[in-house]
From TrEMBL:
Residues 3-82 form the Fungal lipase-type domain. It holds the Pfam family Lipase_3. It comes from Actinomadura namibiensis. Coiled coil: none annotated. It comes from the Bacteria. Transmembrane segments: none annotated. This is Fungal lipase-type domain-containing protein. InterPro entries: AB_hydrolase_fold, Fungal_lipase-type, Sec_MonoDiacylglyc_Lipase. GO terms for biological process: lipid metabolic process.
Length: 172
């Protein structure tokens, strides 16, 4: 198994903030839709080394996994989009009210993969709750989970520790 893990935004790295900030879309080099230019440039800077390392290891018949959180999740999605063998086997996990996963909002931006939604109780679903009431009820449950910290659920749900806790609970 080959795991390529991309780190998320580091608060003290100005280059990360510049990568996150350039949200005007540009044509994807592979001709498959549009891509966030900051994410594209960040991946392109590392892609030659990643591609070579993966090619060296993949010759041994190993499976390939891309993963990341926040900025790293965006880079993992782009890297997977570059690998045709992964088409149809790419998933994005979104934790309830994670604010970062909602920016920029639809229809300006859409993920390239099937979304897996982690509800306010930590259960993973193949899609977000259906209907207006189901979706709003789950979002409200998440926002009201910590009455001593109103309005913080969007950032709290973005924390890597919450993703790890939910995914660890499901996988055992």
């Amino acid at each position: 198994m080959i795991i390529v893990a991309f780190r998320g935004t580091e608060a003290r790295q100005i280059r990360d903030w510049l990568s996150d900030g350039g949200a005007m879309m540009m044509p994807c080099p592979g001709g498959k839709g549009l891509v966030h230019p900051g994410f594209h440039q960040a991946l392109e800077a590392a892609w030659p080394q990643i591609r070579q390392a993966v090619q060296d290891l993949r010759d041994r018949g190993r499976s390939l996994w891309f993963t990341g959180h926040s900025l790293g999740g965006a880079l993992a999605m782009l890297a997977a989009a570059y690998d045709q063998a992964l088409e149809g086997r790419v998933f994005s996990f979104v934790n309830n009210n994670d604010i970062v996963a909602q920016l920029p909002p639809a229809p300006v931006y859409a993920h390239v993969a099937a979304e897996r939604y982690i509800d306010s109780r930590g259960k993973i679903h193949d899609k977000r709750p259906g209907g207006l009431l189901g979706g709003l009820a789950d979002k409200a449950r998440g926002h009201l989970a910590d009455p001593l910290a109103p309005g913080t659920d969007g950032m709290a749900d973005h924390a890597i520790a919450r993703y790890i806790a939910h995914l660890t609970h499901v996988t055992g």
